[in-house]
Amino acid sequence: MTYKTRIDGRGFDEARPIEAKVGVIPRADGSAMFRIGNTWAYAAVYGPRNLHPKFLQDPQKGILRCNYNMMPFSSSGERVRPGGSRRSKEISLVTEKALLPVLNLDEYPNSVVDVFIELPQTEAGSRCAGICAASMALADAGLEMKDLVSAVSVGRVADKLLVDLDYSEESYPDVKVADIPIAMMPNTGKITLLQMDGEVKKEELMKLIDMGKKVLMEIYEVQKKALKEKYHEVEV
Hints:
The chain is an alpha+beta fold. It has one domain (18-231): GHMP Kinase, N-terminal domain (Ribosomal Protein S5, domain 2). It is built from four helices and nine strands, in the order E-E-E-E-H-E-H-E-E-H-E-E-H. The protein has helices at 86-99, 126-140, 167-170, 202-235; strands at 18-22, 30-36, 39-50, 63-70, 111-121, 150-157, 160-163, 177-185, 190-194. A five-stranded mixed β-sheet has the order 1-2-3-5-4. Helix 1 (86-99) packs across helix 2 (126-140) and helix 2 (126-140) packs parallel to helix 4. It starts with 17 loop residues before the first strand and ends with a helix.
């Protein structure tokens, strides 16, 4: 079986519709919503605040903790079991590693910044949507940041290279599928996350990264616009 055109009619280098907003959770120190296609991510930031128990504290800098959670009926596939899982713990850690390069936590010794990411509806690309939302929420919280972080998946379905796989493409039958989440600091082009589920050739990977970077810059503009709109409203 081959894959000639995308099921939803997009171009191979085209992302699903994107929407973003900050300040969506009133009691959080910072919050954001990021939607790509039918995948919705909400992120809330609390802190910096004192970390307890004290033996977990770092006297030289603050600590970032991320908690990623898909709601039980959010997935396009099988029902997600409530509570923690190996997958959610792995994605939580991956999210921390993707966000840490843009943060300066040296001013917050013995403190913690908690980021909670909830996904009420998903159709692939959930970790990337969560990273985008979390990055915006950290900026909304007023933390010192070198840049935002933008994230999207790229991959291959049969012999076609494409950006922002949806669920129907991730689970496309009878062909080889590769899914590669990428996160990037847009102003420097530094990649903070690169994972791979499946196999691609080296030259295919390099081309996919280039395709992804173009969409990541589009996502970055959406993130910036959402932040500017909130603070423009405050100024007015």
